[in-house]
Amino acid sequence: MVGTGVIDRFLRFGYHESIAVTLSDELKPHAAPMGVEYGEPHLILRPYRNSKTYANLVSRPPLSLNFTSDARYFFKAIFSQKELVFDFIDSSEVPVIRGDFDLYVVGRAKLSDMVGERAVFLVTAERVYEGPGSRLALSRANNALLEALVYYTKVAALVNEGYRDLTEYLNLLRINLNLVRKLGSHELVEMANIVEEELNGLLGDSLR
């Protein structure tokens, strides 16, 4: 796999969070937060089978993985994709996201397995680029917002699958939202409040 040395340097702590960009049949970019496991020579994705990312990858295997420590990009990928700007690099089939990203991996995904409500894709990197960097000092509020977004996407997928016992995930989500409100900037607190509003709308009265 190309760029192995760069990937080894950036993805050395087990699972890492990325924003996966895939293409619909109409070639419209779709961005979605996606956990990535690096198991040389592949990057391993496990999207939910009811997700748009899964549907896009089954139809069109090219994708880009965009790595950043800035939780605001993950928020935009979930709630405000119109604020993301996509760029094509070196005539790649699929774009990357413009911004403060540490690493870009452009490659192709191959369906490997189905495990419960998730699919397993093995990604072979075809191009690897270092970005300008997150340019962000360690922030507990930023990290807590990212954790809250991870649990939000998990809850949303499980609600769509008909799961009703979500107490553990909801508790963890709300603990992280409260930490954002305690330690975060006005911008991050506003994002946390939007996550809470969207969560309440997703759950309805019966699951809160």
Task: Summarize the model shown.
The protein is of the alpha+beta class and 208 residues long.
Task: Write up what this structure looks like.
There is one protein chain. By secondary structure, this protein is of the alpha+beta class. The chain has six helices and eight strands, in the order H-E-E-E-H-E-H-E-E-E-E-H-H-H. Helix content is 40%, strand content 29%. Strands 1-2-3-8-7-4 form a six-stranded antiparallel beta barrel. Helix 3 (71-79) runs parallel beside helix 4 (140-160). The radius of gyration is 17 Å and the shape is globular.
Level-2 CATH architecture of the largest domain: Roll
Detail the poorly predicted runs: none
Please report the number of helical segments.
6
Enumerate the strands of the largest sheet in spatial order, edge to edge or round the barrel: 1-2-3-8-7-4
Overall 3D geometry? Answer: globular
How many strands? 8
What's the oligomerization state? single chain
Overall number of domains: 2
Q: Termini distance?
A: 45 Å
- Classify the helix fraction into a percent range: 40-55%
* CATH fold type of the largest domain: Pnp Oxidase, Chain A
Residue-averaged pLDDT, rounded?
94
Classified by CATH, the class of the largest domain is Mainly Beta
Element-level helix/strand string: HEEEHEHEEEEHHH
Largest beta-sheet characterization: 6 strands, antiparallel, barrel
SS-derived structural category: alpha+beta
Q: Into which percentage range does the β-strand content fall?
A: 25-35%
| CATH superfamily caption of the largest domain | Electron Transport, Fmn-binding Protein, Chain A
